[in-house]
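[recover] target loaded
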């Protein structure tokens, strides 16, 4: 195991804990005779990690100095859990090899719920973790950098929407549009002659 990269070695310990093959005390006992710089790996293990890629990404960000949480609840009243939360801001959802398309809508609804609770949801697959981990890290850092920037107050403008007006109906049809004035287009509010002349000018 010591020949494996740190993230993969920790993933193996995570599996040993989550599967019930070892307890934390059992792991400490198993590594008691190991060199001091090896024994500390037990402190990296987390039985809450539910997959290899969760363990790998948790170790990746922890090794970069981030605060990382595993299997955090989406919200106080929401029992669904987020795979990995980085610095309390980024909710990283990881789709394993067995991910199926029938969970597509449920996953997106979960992402929306995460956003409502104030975190930014990012999603990555097994292949992305394997082949493009640096890009995942870059994306998470971009979100964190943006979250740290001072916020400017945004001015939200309001105005009349350019859409046809409706009127009350008496017939079977549930809606009727107000007919635009003769010579005017319903969306632009300009007369047909104005539109034609401007088109001809171009």
């Amino acid at each position: 195991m010591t020949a494996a990269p740190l993230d993969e070695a920790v993933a193996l310990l995570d599996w040993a804990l989550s599967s019930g093959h070892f307890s934390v005390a059992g792991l400490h006992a198993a590594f008691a005779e190991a060199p001091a710089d090896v024994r500390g790996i037990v402190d990296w293990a987390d039985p809450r990690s539910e997959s290899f890629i969760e363990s790998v990404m948790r170790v990746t960000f922890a090794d970069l100095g981030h605060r990382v949480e595993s299997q955090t609840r989406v919200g106080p009243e929401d029992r669904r859990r987020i795979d990995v939360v980085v610095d309390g801001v980024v909710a990283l959802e990881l789709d394993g090899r067995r991910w199926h398309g029938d969970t597509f809508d449920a996953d997106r609804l979960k992402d929306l719920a995460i956003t409502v609770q104030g975190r930014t949801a990012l999603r990555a697959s097994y292949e992305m973790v394997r082949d493009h981990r640096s890009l995942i890290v870059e994306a998470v850092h971009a979100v964190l950098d943006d979250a740290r920037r001072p916020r400017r107050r945004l001015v939200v403008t309001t105005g009349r929407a350019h859409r046809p007006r409706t009127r009350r109906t008496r017939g079977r049809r549930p809606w009727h549009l107000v007919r635009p004035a003769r010579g005017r287009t319903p969306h632009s509010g300009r007369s047909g002659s104005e539109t034609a002349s401007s088109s001809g000018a171009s």
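[recover] notes: The radius of gyration is 28 Å.
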